[in-house]
Amino acid sequence: MTKIAIIGAGLIGGSLALCFKGQPGLRVTGYSYRQESADKYVRLGVVDEATTSLEEAVHGADYIFLCVPVGMLTDYAQRISLMPLKSGCILTDVGSTKAGVAAAVSTIKWGDAVFIGGHPMAGSERAGVEAASAILFENAYYVLTPDENTPPEAVDRLSYLLRLTRAKIVHMNPKEHDEIVGAISHLPHLIAAALVNQVSRYNEGNGGYAMLAAGGFRDITRIASSDPIVWRDILLENRVIVLRLLEEWGGELNRLADILRSEDGEAISGAFRSAGEFRSSLPERRKGVLQSIYECYMDVPDHPGIIGKIATELGNRNISLSNLQIIETRMDVPGVLRLSFRTQGDLDQAVEVLEAFNYVVRVT
Ligand SMILES: NC(=O)c1ccc[n+]([C@@H]2O[C@H](COP(=O)([O-])OP(=O)(O)OC[C@H]3O[C@@H](n4cnc5c(N)ncnc54)[C@H](O)[C@@H]3O)[C@@H](O)[C@H]2O)c1
Ligand SMILES: O=C(O)C(=O)C[C@]1(C(=O)O)C=C[C@@H](O)C=C1
């Protein structure tokens, strides 16, 4: 039996555990610092067994996944390095920052064990084992950060195990990782939190802000609900890069303010045009729980029964809607409806049908 120890089976650790549990020849042990959580891991069927003893969790393990907040990773790595480990054991982490941990673990004596940094580029604003999902990583990128001293055989072995996540493994240098992920993940989380807090302050004086907050606000701020401790640690760890990115973000905002001040309509539409072009060129994840969404938006007149009519027309053609949301609707202007589908085929067919009914449809 191959033993996999998951240290902290929250959203990410629990999702990894679900990818491995029940696979032939694999046995998954969860570790939590709290008995209550360890019991929950077993009750929810995320692991085969769970313990609050770190030593017991890592004893005889072939793979150890450190899935705790970034600020605790080095401490856990150090403690584990002092415990008896199985020869050839591979330790890896899932932390959202890579350079700090890589530097810290490079000073640890691992004996026969090997440490390989890792970071699955998938997640959500939810936290805890209840949010874990076996398909979270499907088709996402999974970054590994081996260095020149990492035995290629160990990288191959870890990559082979990770095939069970159905993620796409890529290798990257920790510093480059932190620079890129700082811009595409850490900065956006800060911006989302700042925007929500700004609006929340306005709302204290006038509840209309929360009342009218519709699709646009919700779309850009979903990640503001992310776990406070997880994000405290990520941002503190990558602060040098994030502080520079924030300065550059300030520059972007100043440029936008300038063109607005000078009422330069061409420059404003240019900003949206170039942003839209880059956004549509982003590679899409074709599967997976969080991003298996193929969406279009359509303007709908505020007629009673219009939504039922749209759903019926699609249903009559066997086009399955996975979600339908009214983003905005007022008596005097068309509302916006967001239609979500599980496959590109359903989306394409739906657009064809809706356009045949003369609806204006936009695909994101
Ligand atoms: N949330 C995401 O979208 C995402 C995506 C990729 C990687 N990550 C990384 O994954 C790691 C875990 O994040 P998550 O989103 O699964 O968070 P989570 O809160 O769902 O899970 C964190 C786990 O750490 C444990 N933990 C918390 N405090 C602890 C303490 N004081 N001592 C011991 N264990 C403790 C919790 O019990 C839980 O099992 C982090 O390093 C994070 O950077 C997160
Ligand atoms: O989809 C989300 O909610 C996420 O926050 C996932 C996300 C990201 O920013 O893309 C967050 C942190 C990670 O380390 C990797 C992925």
TrEMBL record:
One protein family per Pfam: PDH_N
UniProt pathway: Amino-acid biosynthesis; L-tyrosine biosynthesis; (4-hydroxyphenyl)pyruvate from prephenate (NAD(+) route): step 1/1
InterPro entries: 6-PGluconate_DH-like_C_sf, ACT-like_dom_sf, ACT_dom, NAD(P)-bd_dom_sf, PDH_C, PDH_N, Preph/Arog_dehydrog, Prephen_DH
Molecular function via GO: NAD+ binding; prephenate dehydrogenase (NAD+) activity; prephenate dehydrogenase (NADP+) activity
Domain of life: Bacteria
EC identifiers of the protein: 1.3.1.12
Catalytic activity: prephenate + NAD(+) = 3-(4-hydroxyphenyl)pyruvate + CO2 + NADH
Name of the top EC class for this enzyme: oxidoreductase
ACT domain: residues covered: 295-364
Keywords: Amino-acid biosynthesis, Aromatic amino acid biosynthesis, NAD, Oxidoreductase, Tyrosine biosynthesis
Residues of the Prephenate/arogenate dehydrogenase domain: 2-290
GO annotation terms (biological process): tyrosine biosynthetic process
Record PANTHER family: PREPHENATE DEHYDROGENASE (PTHR21363), PREPHENATE DEHYDROGENASE [NADP(+)] (PTHR21363:SF0)
Family: Belongs to the prephenate/arogenate dehydrogenase family.
Protein name: Prephenate dehydrogenase
Naturally occurring in which organism (per UniProt): Paenibacillus herberti
